[in-house]
Amino acid sequence: MRSPFSRIIALGFLPGAALAGEQPPVLETVPVVESTSLAPWEKSWWDLESGAIFQFGNNTPLDYTLVPTQISWRSPGHLNWGFDNGMHLHIGMRASLIGTWVVEGPESHYFGISGGGIAELWSPGQTWALYFGSGGGAGAIDASGGNGGGQGRDLTFNWYLHAGVRRAIGENISLFGGAFFQHMSNRGATDPNPGIDAVGFTAGVSVSF
After folding, report:
1. The model's pTM
2. What is d(CA 52, CA 197) in angstroms, rounded to the nearest whole number?
3. pLDDT tens for residues 43-57?
4. Residue 202 belongs to a domain with what CATH number?
5. Number of independent structural domains in the chain
């Protein structure tokens, strides 16, 4: 590749070469290559996360301890706002498969699905982001019948809130972690109708293909 200085010298010799009947040198052209990298909010992502959440409140007298594990798909941003300081806010969709181990409680497991929205505020350098999301769905638990504070029936609905920090460690991979709240109940289908309100944390990894 010729430097700008060498091109100036070559241009200076063009008139002399033409007068001498010589073939003028061919100047190289440098193609302009545009970056094809997508911003984080322009991609679809897959998340794998797990953590621990603990019962609070008076929906049930039992001290539930749950370990939720989720595989989630996150869409590109459907609503996007860029700011003068370089930060970027976007809102997308999230769909999850849920597998929960009941560590403490009369049941042993819960499997379900959920869907909702997620908002992310990315830093100017696209190295970290704050996230917040909410949604809900349904699933099945091995219900104990509702007596003594256990769940009343297998079909159980869920609702969640989560918020935390995401840290990019590569163009297509990031780590994240934060607070996670989940409510589970059968929406009054049984009497009594104990529910589970549990809060704790989850952490995981995100990849984009």
Report:
1. 0.80
2. 13
3. 999 999 999 999 999
4. 2.40.160.20
5. 2
